[in-house]
Design a protein that fits this description.
This protein has 162 residues and is α+β, with helices and mostly antiparallel strands. It has two domains: 3-64, Ubiquitin-like (UB roll) (Roll), CATH 3.10.20; 73-159, Translation Initiation Factor IF3, CATH 3.30.110. Helices cover 36% and strands 31% of the residues. It is built from four helices and nine strands. It has helices spanning 19-28, 50-67, 84-99, 118-131; strands at residues 3-7, 13-18, 32-37, 44-48, 73-79, 103-109, 136-138, 143-145, 148-155. The strands form two sheets. Strands 5, 6, 7, 8 and 9 form a five-stranded mixed sheet that branches. β1 (3-7) and β2 form a beta hairpin.
């Protein structure tokens, strides 16, 4: 790279200068020459204190990560022969997970002859979905794989309390 677009330590544009001249300017100020944008034509370099520059970029990245929303997927498993009270408890747990801002994956499991009655599992899934309709919305449709039926519920936008 014979030439670079140079930005001074105070943020002002110096312009396009030869690389050795840019290095000499940085050494005269007892600072470092840092390449900011290598893909640009000509590449953009800045005269800065490198450790301070690195600290500020790490701080910006950390702040950006802090603002990201990370969803966890919690699983609630049910059987087709689940009792009424047990189902209420499962719904209560799913409600707590959704209120905390997590997604909930409902899984209905079948064994043996229960496989012939997958409609019972789907019926239970729909019942849970209806019970949580005020705070959650389904993500996709109910899907079946092997001996299990799945449904994922995501919190509605306004229900996240955190």
């Amino acid at each position: 790279m014979p030439e670079v677009r140079l930005i001074d330590s105070d943020g002002s544009q110096v312009g396009v200068v030869k690389t050795p001249q840019a290095l000499a300017m940085a050494q005269a100020k007892e600072l470092d020459l840092v390449e900011i944008s290598p893909q640009a034509k000509p590449p953009v370099c800045k005269i800065v204190n490198f450790s301070k520059f690195r600290y500020e970029t790490e701080k910006r990245e950390k702040e950006a990560r802090k603002k990201q929303k990370v969803y966890q997927v919690k699983e609630v498993r049910v059987r087709t022969r689940i009792g009424e009270h047990d189902l209420e408890v499962k719904i209560k747990h799913a409600r707590e997970f959704i209120e905390d801002g997590n997604k909930v994956q409902l899984t209905a499991m079948f064994s043996g002859r229960e496989m012939q009655h997958k409609d019972l599992g789907i019926k239970i899934m729909n019942r849970i979905k209806d019970a949580l309709a005020d705070i959650a919305e389904p993500e996709g449709r109910t899907s079946s794989m092997g001996t299990r039926v799945f449904l994922t519920l995501a919190p509605k936008k306004q229900t996240v309390t955190k």
